[in-house]
Each structure stands twice: as structure tokens, then as C-alpha cells.
Amino acid sequence: MSFNRRTFLRGAGACIALPALESFGLPRLASGASTATTAAITNAPVKRLVTIGTYLGFHTPSWFPKETGADYRISEVLEPLEDLRSDFSLFSGLDHRASNGHKNWSNFLTGKATSGISMDQIVANGIGHQSRFASLQVTCGSGGEGRMSFTKEGISLPSIGRPSVLFNKLFSSDADKARMDYVLSSNRSALDLVLDEARSLKRQVSSRDAEKLDEYFSSVRDVERKVQKQRQWLEVPTPKVDFKLPDYDPVAPDLSLECEAIMYDLMALALETDSTRVLSFLVPGQGQVFTIDGEKLSAGYHGLSHHGNDPDKIAEFNQVGKKQVANFGRFLSVLNQKKDAQGRPLLDTTAVFYGSGMGNANTHNNSRLPALLAGGGYRHGAHHAIDRGNETKATPLLGDLFLSIMESMGVGQERFVKASRNMNDYLL
Asked: Is residue 202 classed as helix, strand or coil in its secondary structure?
């Protein structure tokens, strides 16, 4: 067989380009999860994960309480959560020690400016087989420039920005399922034929090519497994819910607060029906001018985030932040009311991480991030201030909090980028 940089595998009319190789040979395909890993996930106390990030963050002096411990006074922006304080923990001083700037907001769940896999996708890779959708990514409208969830190859996952699209994905009709069955059947046929052809091309390859082919065919197998999973779930009846969508999708930027509230309702339904166990919500931040409590703000949301320490602009920026926190608080209350299959409140077995990849939007500073962890059956009710003045190797990073979350879900990791400890002492 002649071989050049544009060699393809062909099947059922589809072509899949191979990576550049020194030579060609048969890959070693990835294996499934071990029995021990499956048992750890099954027996884990936390069953679901929700990650929520606000693109422009908050005015952190108005977010972080001045006191620490369990007797802290609730801060101005967090005031809507006063009645829920026993259901969450606050952390100040946490970040990834990563680069600053809007373009590096994406390190929020990845821990580094050069995007690798995000924490939510590590969890999805571990527990995603348990539900119809391994994970769902949500935003409002276009979502703006923000990116939050990334695959192991560092590719950002698209977010659903229209409530009607999310609803139809979660609760599709029989006609929708029939169309999807046809599409999936076609795609699976193409993948099978492509892999059959690949197996027939058995030639000796260099060790470097073997590594490339391992990665490449593992990716193809990942696609195949996802297709097979979707086919299996098509045979399971879609849940029926009593939920009325609005007459139109509020996706205009100046309506994103309204869209946000609807998305939270749909996210709660997704968890209640066990349609997915991993949800990520990017709360966008653009130039929209909000109307709050009947009054139009003086400037756009993004402009208010660059307040220049102007008290009036800070006050309006806090109005937006407080409204976002109120929407989040309502979501927590709904999860407290809804029950899982064992009759427990969903919040008890759902870890909800809320914060931002922006510590100070006024200066584009990505340190000392807003960080709140709710639910999950953790020990809550306190504000934990991490001392950064006398920082040592033992000083926790945000990644250490992620390590604790993942461990409690049976998806244990030894490291998360720069983090190698955990924060169990604060939570258990």
C-alpha cells in the first residue's frame, strides 16, 4: 500500500484521515474500566456533579465574608443564600496559580492556561455510562467567549444555549428517536467498516507510530462506544415531565438572567430523571444592559465588571451578581426538594461547585477565585479562608478541592495539574 500524509481509511462512504505516521500498523485498542474502578464508582457517596461558572465573576470584596468559620456574617452578594448556609461551604484564597487574563478563564476547570481535560469531563469519563447522557454542557444564548468543559485532547465542548433545545434533547419524542436511530445506525456501520479495514493493514511500525495509532484508534473506539451507548438508550423510554417551556427562548443577551433561571429548572429535571449525572453551566458575560427589579442599569454588564473602583458601578455590578446568586440559590432549594430513587434529597448526593475563573474582572486577575461547594453530604456551614501570606507546598489549591470532589465520586486522581493533596480535612 502506498502511504502519504493524506492516507484515509474508508467505510460506508465515509473517510477518516489518519494521523501523520512514519509507518503503518495495527493499534493496541484501549480497554474498559477495571472491576475495582466500577465498584468504587458504584459505592461512592456522591452520585452527581454540577459545575457552574460565571464568566465575569463577582466583586470579590462583596462576595467573600470578612469573618471565617461557621459564625461568619453573610456577604452582600451571597445574601440570597442566607437560609441555605448549612448546605454549602465557602472558600477564599483558592486558585490554580495559573495565568491571568480573559483568555485564560478556561483554566477554571482545567487548572492550566493551555487547556487539558476539565474536571467535569474526568468525572464524566468515570460515571457517564450510568445515564443517557455522559455529560451536558449548558449556557445562555451564544455563551459569548467563555469555554468551560474540555476533552482529554483539550477540545472545548459546545454548550446548549436555548432552553427549548435542551428540553427536546432531554425529553425527545418517538419521532425524534426514530430519526436518531437511523443516523446512529449509519454512523456505526461506517465505523465498523473503517475499523475492519484498519485491522487488515498489518504492517510493522515504529514505536513512535505505535503510540500515535494507540491514541488515534482509542479515539475512534471512544466514538464507537458513544454510538453504541446512544443506540442502547434509544430503547429506553424517555422520561415524561410536567414542565411548560416559555413561548420563546429568552436568548437575547439582555435576557440572559431570565434564561439562566429556566436553564436551572431544566438542569434540575435532568438530574431528577437521571438523564445525566454531570452538568456544566457557563453563565455568560457580555455587553448586555440588564433591567433588574424594573430599573435599567446604567451600563452593560461587561462594562460594569471593569468598574475602576467606582462605587456606583460596583453597586450595579453587585446587583447583577446578587441576581445570579439568587437564581443559583433557587436551584439548590429545588434540588433539596426533589428526591432520588432512594428517597433522599438530590442535593445530598449531588456535588454542586459554583464560582468563576475570574477573581477580579476589573483587572483581569484570575487569582483568589470565588469558590463555593454545596450539597454532596459534605460537612458544610463554614467559610474557609486559605492563608496565602505564608504559602507553602501544603497550602491548598483549587485543584485540591477538585481532588476531594472526584474522590467522593469514586473517580480518584493522584494529581490535578499542580495539586496533589485534597481538602478532605475541610469537608469530611
From this structure: coil
Cα–Cα distances (Å) from 20 to 25, 150, 154, 201, 210, in that order, read 13, 24, 19, 16, 12
Where helices occur in 171-243 by DSSP H, the ranges are: 174-200, 207-234
- Which residues, in sequence order, are CB contacts of 66 under 8 Å at separation 6+? 72, 73, 75
CA distance 358 to 423: 22
What's the sign of the alpha-carbon dihedral 140, 156, 90, 128? positive
* Cα angle value 192/126/195 (rounded, 5°): 10
Cell of 318: 453587585
Contacts of 243 (CB under 8 A, 6+ apart): 167, 265, 266, 269
C-alpha to C-alpha distance for 64 and 359, rounded to whole angstroms: 11
- Each residue's pLDDT tens digit in the chain (428 positions)? 444 444 455 544 444 444 444 444 333 333 355 666 778 888 899 999 999 999 999 999 999 999 999 999 999 999 999 999 999 999 999 999 988 887 889 999 999 855 689 999 999 999 998 888 999 999 999 888 889 999 988 889 999 999 999 998 888 655 555 655 555 566 555 556 556 655 554 455 566 665 555 555 665 666 566 656 655 655 666 677 778 888 889 989 899 999 999 999 999 999 999 999 999 999 999 888 999 999 999 999 999 999 999 999 999 999 999 999 999 999 999 999 999 888 999 999 999 999 999 999 888 888 999 999 999 999 999 999 998 888 888 899 999 999 999 999 999 899 999 999 999 999 99
CB 59 within 8 A of CB 307: yes
Is the Cβ–Cβ distance between 226 and 295 less than 8 Å?
Answer: no
Q: Tell me which H or E stretch contains 64.
A: none
Nearest partner of 55 among 283, 242, 266, judged by Cα = 283
In the structure grid, which three cell numbers stand for residue 400, read together? 485540591
β-bridge partners, 351: 49, 375
Structure-block grid coordinates of residue 204: 510493522
Q: What is the dihedral of CA 271, 128, 52, 372, to 10 degrees?
A: 90
Q: Which domains does the chain possess?
A: 1-30+172-238 (no CATH), 36-171+243-427 (3.40.720)
Amino acid sitting at position 141? G
Identify whether the C-beta of residue 290 lies closer than 8 Å to the C-beta of residue 284: no
